TrEMBL record:
Record domain Peptidase M13 C-terminal: where: 446-635
A molecular-function term among this protein's GO annotations: metalloendopeptidase activity
Sequence ranges assigned to domain Peptidase M13 N-terminal in this UniProt record: 11-389
InterPro entries, per database record: MetalloPept_cat_dom_sf, Peptidase_M13, Peptidase_M13_C, Peptidase_M13_dom_2, Peptidase_M13_N
GO biological process: protein processing
Domain of life: Bacteria
GO cellular component terms listed in the entry, alphabetical order: plasma membrane
Organism of derivation: Secundilactobacillus silagei JCM 19001
Listed SUPFAM superfamilies: Metalloproteases ('zincins'), catalytic domain
Chain's gene name: pepO
Record's keyword terms, sorted: Hydrolase, Metal-binding, Metalloprotease, Protease, Zinc
Listed name of the protein: Endopeptidase
Lineage of the species this protein comes from: Bacteria, Bacillati, Bacillota, Bacilli, Lactobacillales
Homology family: Belongs to the peptidase M13 family.
Cofactor(s) needed by this chain: Zn(2+)
Length: 639
């Protein structure tokens, strides 16, 4: 490994030993809140694709399919900042006028289905996903809206972060309303009413910690029950119109919110709700207008994350174009920079890790035979998606760009695409689940397990150094991508994934004794992380438990795989594990993530998980008295 590693520090702090020298000199770019690891890979891919797309716009690179042709047109449109200046706030006006025209709940109710398809703000959210109990078909889900602040806990009266953030948000919104043509007094009135309404919503939606518990997501309600949750809006007509049918059940992920909806949507609150909608629309759409509006619209998110500056025009155009055509860009990236050979190689590696996992389950000492067999069956049925999808989702063939010459603006095209996407989503209701759909594009540096589908997905972008490289030893690769692959497999058996069977249905397949034992072990993981000091705060062990279980299972499984190779080098294995979590973040970003992120801080992911593995102590001769030492009784072992 070319990195400068301080071997004398390993017994004190593995993460610092591997990354300390890098941390001393690493600087966070002004438009970032983090640098290192995942971020560096994303930046490298961005640089590559921006260069390619510059050639695409210049005509040097020809679109390989119709979807890339539309992407090119959209990229041209979003890159024309002179046109955006000339258009000013005019593209936003029709949407604000629609909200301003509302004089009663009835006015909203009369156009509710169209309002939702358009993508305008509503005081509830509807979406489509696999039915958690009958995973072969898509179901309709209903939840509360997103709050202005990052989490409901920010509305607690003693929350210090909110005291800093709320004034920043209000000041930004005053600026954006002014730029949208409102006078100061009117803007102030809207902001006050909107924030008051948001505070009324907050007690009834879930916190990040509550939302991290999937067992509480499934709350089936009848259409009548959802419709009766408010006297003011005809939800029945809107829902049946959206899905072109009559759902027998709707899954309310936040039932307490719908229980409270009638008290929120009162005649007295109408003006507040209307202001809340205006606030959401101006906040969400101003970034697609002039340069002044684009810059101003980032003030709040930058205060939250600690980014010093907004993205450049070129990068913001790239973000927008690739964000809308994400799977089209992913297809281009996957085929050009990953290819079928690598796809097969990594698929084989995933299968290998699944087999190691099966072996570990077969030899598991705390699971009973019946539960063990069901767990192995779940792995037998596990779907594996690697690199990029075989074909571009048909949705993107419907995206037709209206160029500036025909009166198209960035916002009008975006809203057209939003409507097409929403129509496509609602049309899936009650249809068979499509297991081949990807929820992440191939150029995304990440991976995921979806419990509703029992699939693991590894986009092409993560499949490069330091996670994976032919230049690295097998042990380094297992400490990198091997641990990531096994992490995603472990999600099938974390505190959330374990609730779902081999078909992705919410169905208890555990014996009572095994279930109790598992929950005791999961509680050990909660305790191991809970209250750990980090960045002036404490880690929430409950919020992060599923990811910590997956890290622990992933690392122990990858370790076993590494030990099965002829060139095994556990030193390299552990050092690369610490390297993949290399990160430097702004203090604001660290504070935010401790409040809402289901992952533990990167440094703790690197350091704490190795302390649960006996091989770590023998590899580096770590003894009682060394800071990295953990007594065997306190080492948390689950999978």
């Amino acid at each position: 490994m070319a990195d400068k590693i301080d071997h004398s520090l390993i017994k004190t702090d593995l993460y610092d030993a591997v990354n300390g020298e890098w941390l001393k000199t690493a600087t966070i770019p002004g438009d970032h809140s983090t640098t290192g690891g995942f971020t560096d890979l994303s930046d490298s891919i961005e640089k590559t694709l921006m260069a390619d797309f510059k050639d695409l716009l210049a005509g040097k690179l020809k679109p390989q399919n119709a979807e890339m042709g539309e992407f090119k047109q959209f990229y041209e449109l979003v890159s024309d900042f002179d046109k955006r200046e000339k258009d000013g706030s005019a593209p936003l006006k029709p949407y604000l006028d629609r909200i301003e025209a509302l004089n009663s709940y009835q006015d909203l109710s009369d156009q509710l289905a169209d309002w939702i398809l358009t993508g305008l703000p509503t005081p509830f959210s509807l979406d489509i996903d696999s039915d958690m109990k009958g995973s072969h078909n898509y179901a309709l889900f209903a939840s509360g809206p997103r709050l202005f602040l990052p989490d409901k806990t920010y509305y607690d009266k003693d929350n210090q972060a909110a005291k800093q953030l709320m004034p920043v948000l209000e000041k930004m919104m005053a600026q954006l309303f002014k730029l949208a043509g409102y006078d100061d007094a009117k803007a102030q009135q809207i902001i006050e009413q909107a924030t008051t309404f948001d505070k009324l919503i907050a007690p009834h939606v879930k916190s990040a910690e509550e939302g991290a518990d999937y067992s509480k997501m499934y709350n089936p309600r009848t259409l009548d029950q959802i419709d009766n949750s408010t006297d003011q809006l005809d939800l029945r007509t809107a829902i049946t119109s959206l899905v072109h049918g009559t759902p027998e059940k709707i899954i309310a992920t936040e039932p307490a919110y719908f229980d409270a909806l009638n008290d929120l949507l009162t005649a007295d609150h109408f003006q507040m709700m209307k202001s809340w909608m205006l606030f959401k629309a101006v906040m969400g759409l101003s970034g697609y207008l002039t340069e002044e509006q684009r810059q101003a619209s980032t003030i709040y998110s930058r205060a939250m994350s600690g980014r010093k500056e907004a993205r450049s025009q070129a990068k913001s155009a790239y973000d927008l174009a690739t964000g809308v055509f994400d799977q089209v860009v992913g297809d281009y990236y996957g085929r050009k920079y990953f290819g079928e050979t690598a796809k097969k190689d990594v698929h084989d590696m995933v299968v290998k890790m699944v087999n190691v996992y099966k072996k570990r389950l077969a030899n598991n000492t705390w699971l009973g035979k019946a539960t063990r067999e069901k767990a192995i069956l779940k792995l037998d049925k596990l779907g594996i998606q690697v690199g990029y999808p075989d074909k571009i989702d048909a949705l993107y063939s419907k995206f037709k760009v209206t160029p500036a010459s025909d009166g198209g603006t960035v916002l009008s095209n975006l809203m057209t695409f939003t409507r097409i996407r929403n129509e496509d989503d609602f049309a899936r209701w009650n249809q068979p689940v499509d297991q081949t759909r990807w929820e992440m594009s191939a150029d995304t540096v990440n991976a995921y397990f979806h419990p509703f589908y029992n699939i693991i997905v590894f986009p092409a972008a993560i499949l490069q150094a330091p996670f994976y490289s032919l230049k690295q030893s097998s042990s380094e690769n297992f400490g990198g991508i091997g641990a990531v692959i096994a992490h995603e497999i472990s999600h099938a058996f974390d505190n959330n994934g374990s609730l779902f069977d081999e078909n992705g249905s919410l169905n208890n397949w555990w014996t009572e004794a095994d279930n109790q034992h598992f929950h005791e072990l999961a509680e050990n993981m909660v305790k191991e992380f809970n209250g750990m000091p980090y960045a002036g705060q404490k880690v929430n062990g409950k919020l992060t438990v599923s990811e910590n279980i997956a890290d622990a299972g992933g690392l122990s499984c990858a370790l076993e795989a590494a030990k099965g190779e002829p060139d095994v080098d556990l030193n390299a294995f552990f050092l690369n594990w610490a390297k993949i979590w290399r990160q430097k973040a702004t203090p604001e970003r660290e504070q935010l993530l401790l409040s809402i992120d289901v992952h533990a801080p990167a440094k703790l992911r690197a350091n704490v998980q190795v302390q649960n593995l006996d091989d770590f102590f023998s590899t580096f001769d770590i003894q009682p008295g060394d800071k990295m030492y953990k007594v065997p009784a306190d080492r948390v072992k689950i999978w």
